[in-house]
Amino acid sequence: MRLALGLDCSGETYSLGLYGERGVSLEVSGFQPRRALREIPGALSYLLKTAGAAHSDLLVVGLTQGPGSFTGVRLGVTVAKTVVLVAGCPLCPWDTLELLARQSLPEPSVGTVAVALDARRGELYCGIFEATGQEWRTLLPTGVRPPAEFGAELVRTESVQVVVGAGFAAYPDLWTSGWGGPRYLSREQSAPSGLAIAKLSFEHQSSWISSEALLPVYHRQADIQVSNPL
C-alpha cells in the first residue's frame, strides 16, 4: 500500500491525516496543540490500524513548516523527522499560508486567496495566492507585515475572492474596508488539515526532500531569546 501522512500543529489546533491507495482518506484532529506530542503517536497508530497499514507503507510525510506558533512549528518538525526515521521515507514541507490557500479552494479551481494569521505584536503573517486551474502562483509571498501594509496590498490586488485565517478575525477592517466582498472562511475552516497536507504531499513528489534538508520557517525571531553563554 502507498500512503502519505500529513501533519500540522503550527497553530491553535493539530491535525493528522492519512491519504493514498485503496481509498484511504482518514483524519484525526485536536484543539490543544501543546498536547500533540503526547497524542500524535497514538493518533498515528490509530490511523495506520484503521487503514490496515504499517509505517513501512508511508511514501512521504507532509507537514506545515511555518510560519505559526514557534513552539508548534518546532514540534511539528520534530515529530515529522521522528516518523520518517521509523518509516524510512522523505518529507514534503508546506508553507502554512500556501497550504491554507490551497485547501480553501477545491482543485482544479481558478481564484485568488488572501491568507492572514495573527502574528501578535501588531503584525500579521500574510500572503496572497492565485489558483490558475491545475497550478498555484504566489502574488504576495508569505511574510510578516503590519495590517495597514497588508490592507494596501489587498486593495491593489482587487481580485481576492476568499480570505482565510485568524488574522482577518483579529483585524476585521482588512476585509470590510471597501476592497470587495470576498468569502470569509471561519476560524474553524481556517485550520490546516492533516488530510489536505497528506493529499497534496502524495500528489507532489517533486517537492519531497530528505529529513536533513528540513528546517522550520519562522519569518521572525521569537518573543523570548536565550542569550549565548559567556
The number of strands is 10
- In which range does the helix fraction lie? 25-40%
SSE class: alpha/beta
Question: Could you spell the SSE succession in H and E letters?
Answer: EEEHEHEHEEEHEHEH
Q: Sketch the major β-sheet.
A: 5 strands, mixed
Q: Provide the low-confidence segments as ranges.
A: 224-230
Envelope shape:
globular
Radius of gyration equals 18 Å
- Count of separate DSSP helical elements: 6
Strand content: 25-35%
Beginning-to-end CA distance, first to last residue: 53 Å
- Read across the widest sheet, the strand sequence of neighbours is 3-2-1-4-5
Q: Give the integer mean of the pLDDT values.
A: 88
Description:
- The termini are far apart.
- Helix 5 (166-170) links the parallel strand 9 and strand 10.
- This protein has six helices and ten strands; from the N terminus they run βββαβαβαβββαβαβα.
- With 230 residues, it is α/β, with parallel strands linked by helices.
- The strands form two sheets. Strands 3-2-1-4-5 form a five-stranded mixed sheet. The protein has a five-stranded mixed sheet with strand order 8-7-6-9-10, sandwiched between helices.
- The model is unreliable at 224-230 (pLDDT under 50).
- The longest helix is centred in the middle third of the chain and has 18 residues, at 70-87.
